[in-house]
Amino acid sequence: TQLLEQSPQFLSIQEGENLTVYCNSSSVFSSLQWYRQEPGEGPVLLVTVVTGGEVKKLKRLTFQFGDARKDSSLHITAAQPGDTGLYLCAGGDPAGANSKLTFGKGITLSVRP
Amino acid sequence: EPEVTQTPSHQVTQMGQEVILRCVPISNHLYFYWYRQILGQKVEFLVSFYNNEISEKSEIFDDQFSVERPDGSNFTLKIRSTKLEDSAMYFCASSEERGQRQPQHFGDGTRLSIL
After folding, report:
1. pLDDT in the model for residue A100
2. Fewest 10 Å CB contacts: which of A20, A93, B77, B100?
């Protein structure tokens, strides 16, 4: 069974601070997708990383896939209150022909004005 | 931007009753999925569907569950005889192509409450 552990589980920071959160596993994934989920809504895709070592930027968000494709990080520069939300990582199953995603429990981020 | 739509947003059903959750995937997408999220827990894969048949299913997706694409736009999840533990958010997702690296786009979910 593949597991994704996200850390920290909760993070509360001041507006303007930088932060890095993590998504780790002992298993290799074919891809890593990061989602953001607001209360009462579905996960919204932020980025997909597929190559070991890959870095993708989305405005102030920087996503990195580990060289061994077992872990990923999300770095936010100069966090804003609008970044508040639940951040989920989900890994693609390398063993299957399909696209079953394995999700982590998520990181709840609160950015105080 | 095209989106996945799910109805109803909230369904309350008596234990033992049948329930059908409906989804309209993004129009040019060919691969469809159902996931569920029990309150306070992870999002869990239930089933994937392509070309009018199930591609893969999890151990959660037992004989009480079924999926169908009754027409060219809808994708449904049926739970034949609901149990209390079926209470959860159910998310539908779709992707344009097959493969582990294809992004999946999620709907806003149906909150299913079993009484």
Report:
1. 84
2. A20
